[in-house]
Structure formats: structure tokens, C-alpha cells
Amino acid sequence: MNSPHSSRHRRVGDSPLVKWLLISIAVATAVALLIVPLIVIFFEALGAGWGTLADNLSDQYTLHAIGLTLFVAALTVPLNLIFGTALAWLVTRFRFPGRKLLITLIDIPFAVSPVVAGLLYLLLYGRNGWVGSWLTDYDMQLMFSWPGIVMVTVFVTCPFVARELIPLMQQQGSEEEEAGVVLGASGWRIFRTITLPNIKWALIYGVVLTNARAVGEFGAVSVVSGNIRGQTNTLPLHVELLYQDYNIVGAFASASLLAGIAVFTLAVKGFVEWRQTRTLNRLQTEEAA
Amino acid sequence: MTITVDGINKRFGKFQALNNVSLDIPEGKLTALLGPSGSGKTTLLRIIAGLESADSGRVSFSGKDVTKLHVRDRNIGFVFQHYALFRHMTVAQNIAFGLDSLPRKQRPSKADIQKRVGELLEMIQLPHLANRFPAQLSGGQKQRVALARSIATRPKILLLDEPFGALDAKVRKDLRRWLRNLHDEFHFTSIFVTHDQEEALELSDQVVVMSQGNVEQVNEPTELYARPDSRFVFDFLGQVNVLSGEVKHSRLTQGSAWVTIPGIEHQGNAQLYLRPHEVRLATAPAAHANLPLRIEAVSLIGSEVRVELRPEGWESEGSDNIWEVGISHAEFNQQRPTRGDLRYAVPEVGHLFTGKDTQPVTVNWDEADLSPRIRLIN
User: Fold this and answer.
1) pLDDT computed for residue A158 by the predictor
2) Quick one: which of A165, A221, B26, B325 is 20 to 30 A from B200 by CA?
3) Which of B73, B80, B135 faces A179 most closely, judged by CB atoms?
């Protein structure tokens, strides 16, 4: 009679009206803003059949854009993997003045609009920029070529790995590493056998997010690339060029590739999260048993 | 191996964690670093281990200066409060870690490592859990694995940071006994940090009492309890009842309470410290003391009956304003003290701190009215 489940003791927000209202709003929003556009992309891309899609994708400029995008991602991801891990290690394992400031600074790429970031790089490293004019004397051009694209992409994606690692490493503390060093292990051995296994899944998650963003970055890249077809055009820029050329089908074909990468990213992310929960659950049930 | 700590200073920002600390830890003995939180005991242990570096001062093992030696090369065993087991390794892999980390030339063969791990698992009585992961173990099991891991490479020095702090009372008692046996068997030079006086007094050969970055007193447990050097040690080691007042004409007075101090010449502020077993409860004031108290609580659990009393017409020193007196179960059965009863505390032996003195004077009320019980013993 005094059961907490009796109908008299309803929890806050438990009324059926509120519940279904909230659910419908959430579902409607998700369908209208997320699911329908995603379906439309694939629908449009395949509107003229698989053959046309293949033709559009095997166009030489599209192939070049795909190649450049993958090349940029292939450089960006390892750079940020190393940078992010080193940074997370630094701010969670050492105490030094300015540490809090550094943690805040990591977020700058999130706070600054990518276009602004692109412009800053152009000002600094462009032909007439502070560093750029000096580099020009040595015949080095960064802007309007692939190094510039890699630079802004690294900038835009640099928080992802560090942001994933810092809370986890803070929570795990450094006791295990201290235990390792007391037991005589070298720094490399500690990193390989103790730290790395503990942060493995967060690291993979960070890499997946970095990769997704590196492949899809538009704003910053569009400022520094110069949009030279077949030379400095990445896939997102290519989509825009095709669209402006009134090649709607071609634009959607390339867009479907990007969307495909996004869906794949989500799938990997889901899997990683599922792995983590499963390991946790298994440990807990075994502990209880 | 003896451990010598010489003039260690350590600061964290504005906080002076250790203030010119010097210590000698004898070989083969189990030493306790005892103190409240913030007293610097863990910092001192971590500096001895090499996990923390001192701002100034030296640490040496058997006369050899190790201040600049890396933790990795000090060859010590260290046990962490929260075990710090490697969560991605099995129990056996955890224990083998130190042996696996040895430089190639000193590293035993795979088979030898396996054999040694087997021995250690037998020693901690957990051979059936070799392939479990730390998350699957209970707290007591984890701490035993951590101990086995720390001694796998046969270190001469074993350092333990609050080793039983996170365990429940029953497990803690078992593990304490087990650690003592382990220590006696292997003859380490061991130091363990604790804030639990009972644990320190029961387990160790020598106790170092610390407070606010200073060493207050170093002594054997029995001596330490019987002859505390300072008010701090007195307060910190076990329950103590304090009467703080003015001495005039050989009488310490505060409010309605007074105690005659035979042969005292001092006039002015003084504090009388009395342990729960140094006080007797009577239904009327004695000739040498008038300490009226009202009974607040009676606890029968244990080998003695613990009576908590609140001063009546005067105040005790300390935040809770409570006196604690231990009486035997026989006395309890005779007198049947119950909550709300008025009683008079009759001190038999006391420790008097006068003025700003840090050393107490022991007071005996020998010729005063002693209970028959005491007279029999004398």
C-alpha cells in the first residue's frame, strides 16, 4: 500500500501528457532537422541512378578532392593525436603556474569561428603576412597550397583528443603510474603498459571525432585554400563549387560521400561507447557475484 | 637498511608541509608516522620514497645519500592507500610487473618469474585469483595483492601510505596482524603512515608523532602513551579529560570544580590532563577533588564500560565538552550508573601542564583518599 510505485506517488514530470508532449517535440525536431536532410542527400545523389553517381564520383576533379581531403586528414589526425596526448599528460600529471590558463586555451578553436581562424592564418602566413613575407624570401608558400590547409585543419581540430583525455586522466589520477615507477619501470614502459591501456577508448573516440571534423572542415579551409580546382580543393569546397556550377547531382554525389563518412563515424562512436559500457557492466556484475 | 632523514623542508605554495624534519629509522623495525591530516606524514613518506622532492635536506639509506637518486633506482616497496593496482592487468601480471621491469641482465627467466609470482600468491593466500582483474577483488584482497606486488623484487625497505585506511574494521584488524607477521618474517625496514593512534601503537616498534610539519615526539609505543612530551601528543593519543583553570594556594579551580595539587608552587594558568582509566567515579566529592559531572551516555561494549559525562557548573576543554571515564564491568554492576545521574570524578594520577610549559608534571594523590582497589595493587 505504501509502495513508492503506487499511482498516488508520481514523480515529477511523470504525467502522461507531459511525457508524450516532450517525446513528440524531440522526435519531430530530430526528424525535421536531422533525419530528413540526411535522407534527402542520399536520395538526390542516387536520383539519377547508381551509374550517374559513379560517373560523378570518378570525375577527375572529384577524385582529386577526395585524395586531398584524405591526405589532409592523414596528416592532421596523427599530429593532433600526439599533441593532444602530450597536452593531456602535461596538464593532468604536473602542477605548474599557468596550468589552468592552458586548459582554457585548449578551447580557443571551439570558441573562435573557423573563418576567423582562417583569416588569422592568412594574415600571419600569407605572402604579405608577418611570417609569410619572410618565408616568401626563402621561396616557401604555405597559404593557397596544401600546407596551409593542414595548418588550419590542425588548428580547428586540436581540442578533440585533449578534451576527451583530460577529464578521464584527471579522474584516474597518477597513482598507477607512480606505482609503476616505484617498481622500476622506465617512462616508456609506464606509458605503454599502464597509461595507454587506461586511456585507449577515450583516445580512439578523440581520433574519430578529429577525423570527422578534419574531413568536413569548410570555413577555415575555404579562406586559406584559394579553391583551385584539381589543386587545393577539398571535398567540402568541391561540393560548393559544383553547386555554384549548377551541377546539383554532382554536388549531392560528393555530399553523399561526406554524409557517408559522418554515418560511419557515428557507427564507430556508438561501438566504442558500447564497448566501454559493456566492460564496465561486466566488471560490476562479476564483482557483485 | 637504516633510513636517515636530515633537515627536510617542503613547501606547497604558501603551505609549509615539512619544517626542518630530521629522523632516524632503525634497521629491521616497523615505524609508524602518526599525525592528523595535514601534519606532513604522507609528504615525508613520499620524499623518502622519492615520489616527491624536498626543497632542502637529505635522505640517506644506510649512510648512502639517495636524495638525488631516482625513485626507479631506490629499490623500495611502496604500498598506496588506494592500492593503485594496474586495472588492465590480472593479479598475476600485477605482481610480476616489478620483475618484468628489471633491466634485461638482472631479469629472471619467464619460468622463474612465474614461480616467484606463484610463491607470492601462496603467501597472500590468493592463488585461486591469479587471473582475476583488480575490479573483481574486495578491498582486503586488493591490498594484499598490492603488498605482494611491492615486495616481489625483494626490496629492503617497505613504505606504506595509510595501508588500511580504506578498509572496514574487521578486515583492517586481520590485515594488521598479517602485516606484522610479514614484517617479522622478512625483516624489512618499514615505515607506515597512519592517522589511527590505535593502529600505530598496536603495530609498530617505534612511533613518530607529527603535527603541522614538525616531529613532535619519537618513542616506543608504550613509552609514548605513558610519557607524552607535549600537549599535542597527549591530546592526540587516545581520549583525554582536561580541566583548565587557575592555580591558587595549591588548588586548581574553574567554576564549581577544583582539584588540590599537592606540593605545587606555581600560581596562575594550568591544565590537568587525565586519561579515562586514571579517574574513578564516586557518588560524593573526595577530599582532594570536586568534579561534579552528569552522565550522558553509557557504553557496555568492550572489555571496559565507557561512561560519557558532561561537566556540571564548569567546563571541560575541547569542543565537545565531554569527559570519558572507563570503569570495570564489576563496578558497573555494583553501581549501575544511568543517564542523568550525578557523579564526582576522583582523579588518581594526573598530568599537569603549567603556564606555557610543554612538559607535563605527573601528579599522584598517594596520601589522599585512594580507592581500596589502587591500594591493593600498590
Assistant:
1) 92
2) B325
3) B80
Question: ipTM surpassing 0.85, yes or no?
Answer: no
Do B314 and B372 belong together in one domain?
Answer: yes
pLDDT in tens, B333-374: 888 888 999 999 999 888 888 887 778 888 888 654 444 433
Q: Where are the beta strands (DSSP E) in B212-254?
A: 214-219, 241-248, 251-254
Matching residue, cell 581531403: A69
Q: Do B97 and A175 touch (CB under 8 A)?
A: no
**B233 assigned to some structural domain:** no
Among candidates B80, B102, B135 on the partner chain, residue whose Cβ is nearest the Cβ of A175 = B80
Q: What is the pLDDT of residues B22-79, one digit of tens each?
A: 999 999 999 999 999 889 999 999 999 999 999 999 999 999 999 999 999 999 999 9
The C-alpha of B203 sits at a distance from chain A's nearest C-alpha, in angstroms, of 24
Q: Does residue A13 surpass a pLDDT of 80?
A: no
Chain B CB within 8 Å of residue A168 CB: no
Q: State how far the Cα of A66 lies from the Cα of A81, in Å rounded to an integer.
A: 22
CB distance B135–A283 less than 8 Å?
Answer: yes
Q: Based on the domain organization, do B126 and B265 belong to the same domain?
A: no
Secondary element (H or E) of residue B255: none
Angle between helices A130-137 and A114-125 (to 10 degrees): 40
CATH number for B303 = 2.40.50.140
Domain presence at residue B366: yes
Q: B218 with B359, same domain?
A: no
Nearest chain A CA: its distance from B153 CA (Å): 8
B46 and B188 in a single domain? The answer is yes
Helices (H) and strands (E) in chain A, counts: 16, 0
Confidence at residue A33, expressed as pLDDT on a 0 to 100 scale: 93
In B, which residues are within 8 Å of A198 by CB distance? Answer: 87-88
Q: Does A4 touch chain B (CB under 8 A)?
A: no
Number of structural domains in chain B: 2
Question: Which tens digits make up the pLDDT trace of A98-146?
Answer: 999 999 999 999 899 999 999 999 888 888 888 888 888 888 888 888 9
Nearest by CB: B86 against A181, A184, A194: A194
CA angle (A189, B148, B201) in 5-degree steps: 125
pLDDT band at A286 (very low <50, low <70, confident <90, very high): low
| Best A182, A279, A280, A281 residue to mutate vs chain B (most B CBs within 10 Å) | A182
Is the domain of B194 the same as that of B98? yes
B85 with B169, same domain: the answer is yes
- Asked whether the predicted pLDDT for residue A3 surpasses 70, the reply is no
* Partner-chain contact A287 B135, CB within 8 Å: yes
Q: Are residues B219 and B362 in the same domain?
A: no
Enumerate the β-bridge partners of residue B280: B346
Q: Which residues form the domain of B25?
A: 3-227
Q: Give a yes or no: residue B165 inside a domain.
A: yes
Count of CB atoms within 10 A of residue B128's CB? Answer: 9
Q: What is the pLDDT of residues A199-241, one digit of tens each?
A: 988 899 899 999 999 999 999 999 988 888 888 889 999 999 9
Based on the domain organization, do B304 and B161 belong to the same domain?
A: no
Question: B360 and chain A: CB distance < 8 Å anywhere?
Answer: no
- How is residue A82 written as a grid cell? 600526439
Secondary structure (DSSP) of A22-69: HHHHHHHHHIIIIIHHHHHHHHHHTTTHHHHHHHHHTSHHHHHHHHHH
B76 touches chain A (CB under 8 A): yes
